[in-house]
Amino acid sequence: MLRDPLLAFQPEQIDFIANPYPAYDELRRAGRIHYDERTDHWLITRHADVNALLRDRRFGRSYLHQSTHAEMGRPPEPEMQAPFWQVVRNGMLDREPPDHTRLRRLVSAAFTPRRVEQMRGPITRIVDRLVGEALEHTEFDLLATVLEPLPVTVIAELLAIPEADRHMLRPWSAEICLMYELNPSEDYARRAVAASVEFSDYLRALARERRTNPGSDLISALAQVVDEGDRLTEDELIGTCVLLLNAGHEASVNGSGNGWWALFRNPDQLARLRADRSLLPTAIEELLRYDTPLQLFERWVLEDSEICGVPVPRGAELGLMFGSSNRDPDAFEHPDELDITRDPNPHITFGAGIHFCLGAPLARLEMQIAFDTILRRMPNLRLLAEPEWKPTYIIRGLKSLTVLA
Prior knowledge:
Elements: H1 14-18, H2 21-30, E1 33-36, E2 41-44, H3 47-54, E3 59-60, H4 82-88, H5 99-110, H6 113-118, H7 120-134, E4 139-141, H8 142-147, H9 149-159, H10 169-176, H11 186-212, H12 218-224, H13 234-265, H14 267-275, H15 280-290, E5 296-301, E6 305-307, E7 310-312, E8 317-321, H16 322-325, H17 360-377, E9 382-383, E10 402-404
Parallel strand pairs: 2-8
Antiparallel strand pairs: 1-2, 3-5, 4-10, 5-8, 6-7, 9-10
């Protein structure tokens, strides 16, 4: 009897989280689409299909712009979750056109390439300080000392969060992102709701102050931006700032942490990068492909559709498997090998289509500066112990990364 390939897909198991790639290979070989009854998702495994579906407007991050929960055959959301969804759905990620188009246009007018490039100096200073503090110790956790504080400090700088309040940002981000796991538990949901309420209340007070007394920060820019007489509402500004923190923090931390773990496991590639740091641009893209920080993104089926030759009904939910797509041999030669010179590298770590990550240039800039500084100032950095993984699958990252400088 043939083995059911879905038996290999165990997102709640830490062994699977630590290395999902053999299971992905089994799923890709078995077919382009699989229905997983346990999570109620249609899993899409191959690069070409995921890339195409991300760009197809028959599938959305939300369906509420056109249908109610009942009309889509979905149960009503628990009332206790309402504050969380109020915050999240006022950001652009969980909106569809025309609302998404309007929000992205307004946010892009404030979060410009020029503003990102202006962060080069501040990011360099932040990284230098964090690396210097880490080097005061012979042994340290690279994640806790450098890689985790960096993106949240950068977002705090962008938003001009007062120094005394910045310690709250990382816990808020981690708690809010618990809701993005497959079938989050009631405990995860309550923690995410509490964090979203606390963070949105904090931002609301800050936004009102910046509307009255604007500065050069991103909150002020978002509060002041006007395009053809249109501007962000207060709730949309708050939802945008929450999205910037969550996406800018969790994905960046895991991208960098998973990247260093990949380099330590591939010492020939690490030695090559140490010898020639000009390889960093292609190396960063390869690290983001090789061990994808966000393993799966969801899309709702907005109308009855045929997907990969299979009829899928309106109201179904797709699981677009970024981690599997980025190891697809039809898209990448020797996909299970780390090659820091890989070019071209059409990974989909930042998504595709209208929801392509707006913060991708900032994430790339952060990673390049951080990796360059660590390679330069810690030339003999080595791993002391094999790391453990956090028990979360979609936003997948390490608990720690203990190193010797």
